[in-house]
Amino acid sequence: MTRFNQIKYNPRERLVEVGAGLVWDDVYAALNPLGANVVGGRATGLGVAGLSLGGGYSYISNQYGLAIDNIVAYELVLPNGSVKTITNSSNAELFFALRGGSNNFGIVTGFTMKTYPQGQVWGGYITFTGDAAEQLKLATLKFMANVTDPKAAVLSTFGYTPTANTSSVNLLLFYDAPTPPASIFEDFLVIPAITTDISTRSFLSLVQAETTESLSGLRAVVHTVAVERYDETFLDSVLNETVFWGQKLGSSSSTFISYGIEPFITSILSHGSAYAYPPDRTKAYLPTNIYCQLTNVAKSSGQDIDHAALYTNYALFDTPLERIYGDNLPKLKQIKAKYDPLNIMGQAGGWKL
């Protein structure tokens, strides 16, 4: 029997069975009173299955890796109709393929995930006027240069709203404890803000602080640039492009442009081994949620990113599969042909092998 909409916690083994039909809010709400948490989505309304099959960056990824690093079993309905529990010991090749290989091998109806102790956290959202972009840029650069605490995370977003003809700047701060060390976020907190929603709260409350309701009914297209590091030249280009493209669209456009800067520590990929994604775990690239000509900017600063794998869940719809799976692509195609010879899963959306 599938676990499509179920959550079952095993405190002795510190594992939770999660139905693929749920959103992360459901999982956090169930685990919160139990003092437990999983590596999952960072915004309310995100589905468990999509993020978990594509990689999965989290606020606690600096400590525990990606979502796929913390999945120990999949409940999989194979294209022939049989239902199997896939683990590394029961079927190593499918286990490899499902960890980042998207929905190519059958319908995943449940995940068994590692859990971790979770108390209250500190953080929330801050919004600024557009003229705070330079200060936020400098604070972000200083944070990346000096902070190695895996409990700390920031997400700096630079955007432009053509209808208002103005830049938009916002920030997410996170610390996995009720109170952070005073020095970690001080450069962010001194920037004059429009709104501030920072508090000691539950992990669920922090995730629900980012709502996507304002985007309901709108189309969104995202892409990614995988970079080795953020430097001042790169972030200056981000600031310039938000204004250039925002003004190019004109005030009559309903389009909103956003560039998300997501610094993670270099050890983030040390929590897992070889999976479908990323194809190379020897170097952690930053899965920047942005686009335009920023690849060229990073390369001009000496970054070797020609073969950097693009993050599955951010990559644009027509991205060549080689740019996501690299040298793993031939192996994934072989596994796909073995378990889905009639290409049943080719009728579904997503990245198709």
TrEMBL record:
One Pfam entry name: BBE
Residue ranges occupied by any FAD-binding PCMH-type domain in the UniProt entry: 1-118
SUPFAM superfamilies associated with the record: FAD-binding/transporter-associated domain-like
Record key words, sorted: FAD, Flavoprotein, Oxidoreductase
Keyword Iron: no
Gene Ontology MF terms in the entry: FAD binding; oxidoreductase activity
Keyword match Oxidoreductase: yes
Alphabetical list of Gene3D superfamilies matching this protein: 3.30.465.10, 3.40.462.20
Ranges that cross the membrane: none
InterPro entries: BBE (IPR012951), FAD-bd_PCMH (IPR016166), FAD-bd_PCMH-like_sf (IPR036318), FAD-bd_PCMH_sub2 (IPR016169), FAD-linked_Oxidoreductase (IPR050416), Oxid_FAD_bind_N (IPR006094)
Entry superkingdom: Eukaryota
Family that this chain belongs to: Belongs to the oxygen-dependent FAD-linked oxidoreductase family.
PANTHER family named in the record: BINDING OXIDOREDUCTASE, PUTATIVE (AFU_ORTHOLOGUE AFUA_1G17690)-RELATED (PTHR42973), FAD-BINDING PCMH-TYPE DOMAIN-CONTAINING PROTEIN (PTHR42973:SF13)
Name the record gives this protein: FAD-binding PCMH-type domain-containing protein
